[in-house]
Amino acid sequence: MLSETDHSEDRVTRLERRLQRERRAREEAEWLLEAKSLELYNANNHLTVLANDLEMRVLDRTHELEASRQQAMFLAERDPLTTLANRFSFARDLDAAIRAAQLQGGSVQLLFVDLDRFKEINDNYGHAVGDAVLLGVADRLRAICKEQEVAGRLGGDEFGVICVTPVHSERAREMAAKVMEAMSKPIDCGRLQLIVSCSVGFASFPRNAADSPTLQRFADIALYRSKSAGRSTWTEFDETMAAELEHRQGLEAELRSAVAAREIEAWYQPIISTQSNRIIGVEALARWQHAQRGLILPGLFIPLAEESSLIVELGQAMIDRCCEEMYPLIREGCLDYVSINLSTRHLRSPSVVEQIAATLARHRFPPSALQLEITESLLLIDFEQAEERLSHFRALGIRIALDDFGAGYSSLSYIRRLPLDVIKIDRSFARDISSDRQAEAVVKAIVQLAQALDLDIIAEGIETESQALRLTSCGCFVQQGYLFGRPMPLSEITQYLEAGANPLQGYQSKPASQA
């Protein structure tokens, strides 16, 4: 039997054990609580880091979006190459300037600037050089613009300047002169420096126009006048120009209709041989018999056609008509060939070789009886392309003649490389040969050059017997000009040939000393 003391010791032991268990439980709970607190603390820190990172990302993305918005706004208003105002923002600024001038009684002067022959720079030197030129022009326009003036690139090689001035200001003239002066200096294009001329036209509000569209149209008319005057100049709009432009646009529309309706006739000028005393060929020249205006000479409508793609349609129509009309005369042996002018733009047309080959086949016209005349200015454009196209023509059997030889562009290396058959001496040498020994010496040199290159020679522009005889004595036996016959319509040249007319009758036996 246990004593009371023993029972007390058991209770104490149990209490101690209980206290130990509770202490261990409390320690475990405290440890778990501390661990959970640390875990929560770490989680909180991690969430804080994530939140901060997310906030930074949101801020960065917001900045990116804002930068993109600003860039989009910039690109919407600025030309991406030059950073000048683009066409849209330039027009908006012009409208705003006119509204302000209406309220304040001021003037707005609008200048259009167009680079002369810029396409040739791209063709000859590449687009990188072309871009360098555009950047150089933009920098110069910025430099000469005052604080309130706006310069813009309107597209391609076209620029504009808006000047807000007091009424009766001459700022536009001053600006035009400064533009011309700035463009007279070379532009650094890296590996080379180029001088690029420009044409300028300008008009003023309210002196010339009462609203923005009219002001732009009048400035464009003035620009066209500058380009028509030979480029590298500036022109101020006046009222007569609008009427002239309206007349020109009407004539262009009528010309387009005339080409489509085959109303452009081919007239033929004889080409003669002083050795055989016969007409060996004819040159076809375009004539426009207008229903109301009468006969319109090519000097009026050919430049109009050359300013647009219409010259290609006109050239192809002429070739088609000549092959159709001359085939009977070629077949009967009345002529050896017909010579037709081929414009630079027509030659550069991608399908020109195929079109002319198809025309010859359609009319059963012998290729050797077709002579295509190209001008020396072609050498300044894309020589490699021209050489390739002309080689294709030669492969078909078509003759190639270089017109206006000696007029100023010739390069002997180009002439040696081109697949030529004929050189046509410029008419200026025929005009002066009777009185100018230097002209005669040049003709003799050209004849010797042609002989060395195995090329035929034709002298054009012969108007007097003296000129004909002098050229013959120089060795130029094939000639063309009013002395032998003016350009004639088909009916007249047919009668002329069928009659067996001798174009040299009456003077072929005269010695040159009597000319």
What distance lies between the first and last C-alpha atoms, to the nearest angstrom?
A: 175 Å
SS summary, helix count: 17
Rg over CA atoms: 41 Å
CATH superfamily of the largest domain: EAL domain
The SS-based structural class is alpha/beta
- Name the beta content range: 15-25%
Count the beta strands: 16
Biggest beta sheet summary: 8 strands, mixed, barrel
> Spans with pLDDT under 50 lasting ≥5 residues?
506-515
Topology:
Layout: H1 4-77, H2 87-104, E1 107-115, H3 118-125, H4 127-144, E2 150-155, E3 158-165, H5 171-183, E4 187-188, E5 193-194, E6 198-205, H6 212-228, E7 234-236, H7 239-260, E8 264-273, E9 278-290, E10 294-296, H8 298-306, H9 310-331, E11 337-341, H10 344-347, H11 352-363, E12 370-375, H12 383-396, E13 399-405, H13 412-417, E14 422-425, H14 427-432, H15 437-452, E15 456-460, H16 465-473, E16 478-480, H17 490-498
Parallel strand pairs: 6-7, 9-11, 11-12, 12-13, 13-14, 14-15, 15-16
Antiparallel strand pairs: 1-3, 1-6, 2-3, 4-5, 8-9, 8-16, 9-10
Task: Provide a compact summary of the structure.
By secondary structure, the protein is α/β, with parallel strands linked by helices. Helices cover about 55% and strands about 20% of the residues. The strands form three sheets. Strands 8-9-11-12-13-14-15-16 form an eight-stranded mixed barrel, surrounded by five helices. It has a five-stranded mixed β-sheet with strand order 2-3-1-6-7, sandwiched between helices. It has a two-stranded antiparallel ribbon with strand order 4-5.
